[in-house]
Design a protein that fits this description.
The chain is α+β, with helices and mostly antiparallel strands. 20% of the residues lie in helices and 34% in strands.
């Protein structure tokens, strides 16, 4: 039996239909679009970041620390403990900034440069109150350095790079913004604020630089939340103020009054005979300390130091801490409904390691 003559004809019709569909742009599938090119501004910014990171890395160092183990319950010899952190070069002759906690209790410090050379580092200055330390390596010259910027001009939202060696991963760069200025931390020197950033800061980043888009150090990475999502850096202007003293003396001489202070609250106004909350309320005075010797009394309200008005406790802490030891300061106080002045000689704060 012969096949039906309709089958070949039907096949030709179907083939013609498919071919016409492919030729018809309304029926055919559209071709995939070409890959989109990055916007010119974004492309330039991308190059800027890569060039900046490449320029900064040579001044970054890896700090490795060895600490002798202490005998506790066991009399058996214990293996030395090892840890690591970051730092950056600020002087062509080998002065390096890092964190105090990175080198605390170190028996030996090894510094590894970007080019792989290794040197024994000497701790020439340390202050645990701000968590800042200086190292020195010998036998070097013409080392690359990083300049300090002005942290007071820093704005929330500015882009920053955090450099360091998190988890031992050398020469790591993370990108973020300044999330907040004036983040008070109890571990910091009283009255001084940290820079908060969302640039990733993890264990091993401590002591590394926080850098702006001009390639200037605007902070020293110091600590972070456990997951690394919030990091804190010591502001560069504070570091610039402290480095010369660390180089010269090996420690920071913080000013000290010897008082316990608090804010002036609304419920204190009637008792203190004040019209509005202002100044700093003295809760107690330590006998024999500078404030006591100068005539400051409990329940005094300090309004100004050397004519500079004080808005609250942090202002008093900051001014006193930064004042030179031995400086005589005019203290304007509100006492028993009247304003008066006393003179106080700034004393030296005794850090835990000094006691």
């Amino acid at each position: 039996m012969r096949g039906s003559p309709l089958r070949p004809a039907l096949g030709l019709v179907l083939l013609a239909t498919l071919l016409s569909a492919c030729a018809d742009p309304t029926l055919a599938r559209s071709a995939p679009p070409p890959p989109a090119a990055a916007a010119p501004e974004l492309a330039r910014f991308n190059v800027l970041l890569a060039d900046l990171a490449e320029r900064l890395k040579p001044a970054l160092v890896h700090v490795r620390v060895r600490r002798e183990a202490t005998k506790e319950e066991s009399e058996e010899p214990q293996e030395p403990r090892r840890s690591a952190g970051s730092g950056f070069i600020v002087d062509h002759q080998g002065v390096i900034v890092t964190n105090a906690h990175v080198v605390e209790g170190a028996s030996t410090v090894q510094v590894r440069l970007f080019d792989g050379r290794r040197f024994t580092g000497k701790v020439i200055g340390r202050d645990s109150r701000v968590d800042l330390a200086l190292l020195k390596i010998d036998g070097v010259k013409d080392l690359p350095t990083l300049p300090f910027g002005d942290s007071n001009r820093l704005r929330v939202g500015e882009f920053v790079l955090a450099l360091g060696h998190p988890f031992g991963l050398e020469h790591t760069v993370s990108f973020g913004i300044v999330s907040r200025k004036g983040s008070p931390l109890s571990v910091a020197a009283p009255g001084f604020d940290f820079i908060q950033t969302d640039a990733a800061i993890n264990p091993g980043n401590s002591g590394g630089p926080l850098v702006n888009m001009a390639g200037e150090v605007i902070g020293v990475n110091s600590m972070a939340a456990r997951n690394g999502s919030i990091g804190f850096a010591i502001p560069s202007n504070l570091v610039k103020m402290l480095v010369p003293q660390l180089v010269a003396k090996g420690r920071i001489e913080w000013g000290w009054l010897g008082v316990s202070i608090t804010e002036v609250g609304d419920d204190d106004l009637e008792r203190l005979k004040l019209r509005e909350p202002r100044g700093v309320l003295i809760r107690s005075v330590i006998p024999g300390e500078p404030a006591d010797q100068g005539g400051v009394r409990p329940n005094d309200v300090i309004l100004a130091l050397d004519g500079t008005p004080l808005d609250g406790p942090r202002d008093l802490q900051r001014v006193v801490a930064a004042a030179p030891v031995g400086k005589k300061m005019r203290v304007t106080v509100w006492r028993d409904g009247h304003q008066t002045e006393v003179e106080v000689t700034i004393g030296r704060y005794k850090a835990v390691e000094d006691q």
